[in-house]
Structure formats: structure tokens, C-alpha cells
From TrEMBL:
It comes from the Archaea. Its main location: cytoplasm. The gene is panB. Its EC number is 2.1.2.11. Mg(2+) binds at residues 44, 83, 114. GO terms for cellular component: cytoplasm. It comes from Vulcanisaeta souniana JCM 11219. Signal peptide: none annotated. SUPFAM superfamilies: Phosphoenolpyruvate/pyruvate domain. This is 3-methyl-2-oxobutanoate hydroxymethyltransferase. InterPro entries: Pantoate_hydroxy_MeTrfase, Pyrv/PenolPyrv_kinase-like_dom, Pyrv_kinase-like_dom_sf. PANTHER family: 3-METHYL-2-OXOBUTANOATE HYDROXYMETHYLTRANSFERASE. It is found in: Cytoplasm. 3-methyl-2-oxobutanoate binds at residues 44-45, 83, 112.
Length: 263
């Protein structure tokens, strides 16, 4: 398999669906890469699915750096994208460049800040100085407090129009792809048809150029998964059963049996 670059992803629009998934550690990155994924996102969903926080607002750059470095050590053929945490880019171009470059030095090949027109200058400067950017519009979890919850975006005509403008702004700023999260499928379809760069959807229907899911949702490790996520395996039960078996085998003297030790 050849190394996936941002050019590879851009070239897939209209030809082949782009498939991405999150990963936060070395073994998971190896496995999803071996499964043939196109892009691995070290998402700030890290905060919720791995670190146990209620939202992504608590994730710090140093948390992301540790997990990006771990994923990078798997040397994936997939493109490695890192989320920019809350308030590591909104505060200005200098901060955005400095913080994005730290993610790049940790092994990321692209970064993902949240927002549309309001981050045009930030995205434009990152791209101008060599840092590929994937946009993220629709539901922006980093804005959960002002949104009043994790809600669908784009139901009103005004919101749908804004989504279209945000996508065009990100394309204009130089983004190589755009994540569209939790919008009506019809809105995601219209956005997809109006830009030349691939759209990668999550909870936004089938009409995008690609899909992305959180790996813990795919594997059945999330306590309260979002309704749009498909669980492909119930790893929670598999893990619980395996550990319960280990517990009982140690307690009843079955483990370690002869093959697991030497006299
Ligand atoms: O943090 C994350 O996992 C994400 C994806 C859901 C797109 O931003
Ligand atoms: Na995110």
C-alpha cells in the first residue's frame, strides 16, 4: 500500500469514497492502518472516549501531543491528522502556527481546527506556511456550551446557507477536505456538490465524499454512543468476558497451567 497524502485524499473526490476513523494510541493505529483506512484522526474526542471528560473542552495541547506521537510511531500508510484543541488556534495566527507546528513535529501530517468563515485567516496562514488543514463544520463540539448541547446543525434555511458559505470559505482558505458533522443529509449533499474538495461526513448522511467515525463507537467501547454511529463489534462484552475468565481462572488455580511456566 502506498503512503496516503493530502493529494491522495483530494484526488479521491468523485472517484472513490474516503474512509477515516479516529485512533489515539499505537496498537489501535497499527490495526486500523492494516485494515486499509485512508486517514487516521487523532481527534480531541480523545477527551471523551479515552480520558473520561464530559466534553472536548478539557483537552490540552500536551494531551494531543502525547497521543499524536504514539499514533505516529505506528508509521501508518494512512494520512495522520490531528485535532487542534479548544483555544489553541482561535486566539490568532501566531498561536495557531506555533501550536499546529508542535502537532506536526509530534508526527501529524495535517491539522483540524473547528469552524468556518471566522477562522479563514487562521486556516489560510497554516496552509500558506506548509501545514495542511482539514476543516470541520456543522456541529462543532468545541462550541457545545454556546450551542446548549450536541445538536444537529443546518435545519433552518439560515443555518444551511451559513454551512454552504463556511465550506466555500474553507476551500478558499486552502483546506484539503472538510468534515461535516451532524447536519441533515440534504444539506451535506448540497455542500458536497458545491465544493471541489472532499467532504467527510459524520452523522450527516451518505451523500458526502467520505465518512469518519470514532473508533470506540465502531468497536462498541463507548458507554453512550451517538445515534449516527454504527457499532461493528461489541468489544466491551468481549473484553469483559475475557477478563472475567482470567479472574476466575486465577481464583480457581487454572491459570497459570504448566505451559505458562518453567520449573
Ligand atoms: O474529535 C473527533 O473525533 C472528531 C471527529 C468526530 C470528526 O472531530
Ligand atoms: Na474533534
Amino acid at each position: 500500500r502506498r503512503k496516503v497524502t493530502v493529494q491522495t485524499i483530494m484526488g479521491m473526490k468523485g472517484k472513490q469514497r474516503v474512509v477515516m476513523v479516529t485512533a489515539y494510541d499505537y496498537p489501535t493505529a497499527r490495526l486500523v492502518d492494516q485494515a486499509g483506512i485512508d486517514g487516521i484522526l487523532v481527534g480531541d474526542s480523545l477527551g471523551m472516549v479515552v480520558l473520561g471528560f464530559e466534553s472536548t473542552l478539557r483537552v490540552a495541547l500536551r494531551d494531543m501531543l502525547i497521543h499524536v506521537a504514539a499514533v505516529a510511531r505506528a508509521k501508518p500508510k494512512a494520512l495522520l491528522i490531528a485535532d487542534m484543541p479548544f483555544m489553541t488556534y482561535e486566539t490568532g495566527i501566531r498561536d495557531a502556527l506555533r501550536n499546529a507546528s508542535r502537532l506536526i513535529r509530534a508526527g501529524a501530517e495535517a491539522v483540524k481546527p473547528e469552524g468556518g468563515q471566522e477562522i479563514f485567516d487562521i486556516v489560510n496562514n497554516l496552509v500558506k506556511f506548509g501545514i495542511p488543514v482539514m476543516g470541520h463544520i456543522g456541529l462543532n463540539p468545541q462550541r457545545v456550551l454556546s450551542l446548549g448541547g450536541f445538536k444537529m446543525i443546518g435545519r433552518t434555511e439560515e443555518q444551511a446557507k451559513k454551512l454552504m458559505e463556511d465550506a466555500k470559505a474553507l476551500q478558499e482558505a486552502g483546506a484539503f477536505a472538510i468534515v461535516i458533522e451532524m447536519t441533515p443529509a440534504s444539506v451535506a449533499k448540497a455542500v458536497t456538490e458545491s465544493v471541489k474538495i472532499p467532504t467527510i461526513c459524520i452523522g450527516a448522511g451518505p451523500h458526502c465524499d467520505g465518512q469518519i467515525l470514532v473508533i470506540h463507537d465502531v468497536l462498541g467501547l463507548t458507554e453512550r454512543p451517538p445515534s449516527f454511529a454504527k457499532k461493528y463489534v461489541d468489544l466491551a462484552s468481549i473484553i469483559r468476558d475475557a477478563v472475567a475468565k482470567y479472574v476466575s481462572e486465577v481464583r480457581n488455580g487454572e491459570f497459570p497451567s504448566a505451559e505458562y511456566y518453567k520449573d
